[in-house]
Amino acid sequence: MKQLRLKITADGSSTIYNEKIDENYHSIHGALQESMHVFIDKGLLNSLNKTFKNENLKILEIGWGTGLNCALTYFNSTDSKIKIEYHGIEPFPVADNLIAKLNFSFNNSEQEFFKALHQLSWNKNHFINSSFSLTKHESTFENFNSLEQFDLIYFDAFAPRKQPELWLKNIFEKIYGLLRADGSLVTYCAKGQVRRDLEAVGLSVERLDGPTGKREMIRATKNI
Ligand SMILES: C[S@@+](CC[C@H](N)C(=O)[O-])C[C@H]1O[C@@H](n2cnc3c(N)ncnc32)[C@H](O)[C@@H]1O
Questions:
Q1: Cβ–Cβ under 8 Å, residues 66 and 100
Q2: Is 144 in the pocket of ligand 1 (CB under 6 A)?
Q3: b or e along 128-140 (b: 16 or more beta carbons within 10 Å of the residue's beta carbon)?
Q4: The pTM is what?
Q5: How far apart (Å, rounded) are the C-alpha atoms in residues 195 and 213?
Q6: Which atom of ligand 1 sits closest to the CA of residue 63?
Q7: How far lies 130's CA from each of 78, 100, 120, 134, in Å?
Q8: What's the pLDDT score for residue 1?
Q9: Can you tell me which atom of ligand 1 is nearest the CA of 141?
Q10: Is the distance from the beta carbon of residue 165 to the nearest atom of ligand 1 less than 6 Å?
């Protein structure tokens, strides 16, 4: 897409700017620090702590984009001995030439891994190794159907003012159905209406400290 271009954020890591909707893929206060805080520290590590060694952790990312959250999930879970099944949903895959320009301060082997993630075909399950599998679904979330349920959902859509259709109650109802008992959604957004709508569909909402540049974020859990 011609409307996408590279941008550097405050921690030196890259993001992508979408000209059409005038929105960045990550926080301008630092893409890497935002992903690490919201999705890894408050999402992945919290869920890994609740998972027994012989269980799988199933993760669904809504808005796979650059694949940053997926790569960070792999790097931060390899010591856990817990098997991860990762599903990423993305209707507009980013072109390879733009992916090649992204800098997330990865070391050489991490960068090779990141590159390999992008070379995997879409809509097919890939075993990266015996403890990590990835399926990249080329689809909108609205059109995504699954009989599976997930332990953790990374909700990384564009902000509500830019993409209001993904922050509606019917979307959160679908998310509720896709979560396993005790499963959680994490998102960078802490808007009051979003919190109320998540609660209205039956999720328990926690307001957590946000990443740099944001006061709060949300973790919403299916407590049944
Ligand atoms: C804020 S960016 C997040 C990107 C990504 N998580 C990353 O770390 O690079 C939002 C992403 O949602 C994708 N997206 C747009 N419409 C969508 C939809 N209807 N369903 C799922 N994803 C969508 C965009 O193409 C974009 O990649």
A1: no
A2: no
A3: eeebbbbbbbeee
A4: 0.98
A5: 19
A6: 12
A7: 11, 27, 17, 12
A8: 59
A9: 20
A10: no
- The atom of ligand 1 lying closest to the CA of 31 is 8
Rounded CA separation 87/188 (Å)? 19
- At 58, which helix (H) or strand (E)? strand 56-62
Please report, for the chain, the start and end positions of each structural domain, with discontinuous segments joined by +.
32-221
For the chain, how many residues are written? 224
- CB-ligand 1 contact for 30 (6 Å cutoff): no
Distance 60 CA to ligand 1 centre (A): 13
DSSP 129-154: ETTEEEEEE-S-STT---S--EEEEE
CA of 33 to the centre of ligand 1 (A): 18
Q: What are the structure tokens assigned to 150, written together?
A: 């997930």
Residue 118: alpha-carbon gap to chain centroid: 15
Select from 3.40.50.2300, 3.40.50.150, 1.20.210.10, 3.40.190.10 the CATH code of 32-221: 3.40.50.150
Tens of pLDDT, residue by residue over 106-151, are 999 999 999 999 999 999 999 999 999 999 999 999 999 999 999 9
Contact 44, 219 (CB under 8 A): no
Query: Best mutation site among 17, 59, 92, 106 for ligand 1, i.e. most ligand atoms within 8 A of its Cβ?
Result: 92
| Cα-to-centroid distance, 98 and ligand 1 (Å) | 15
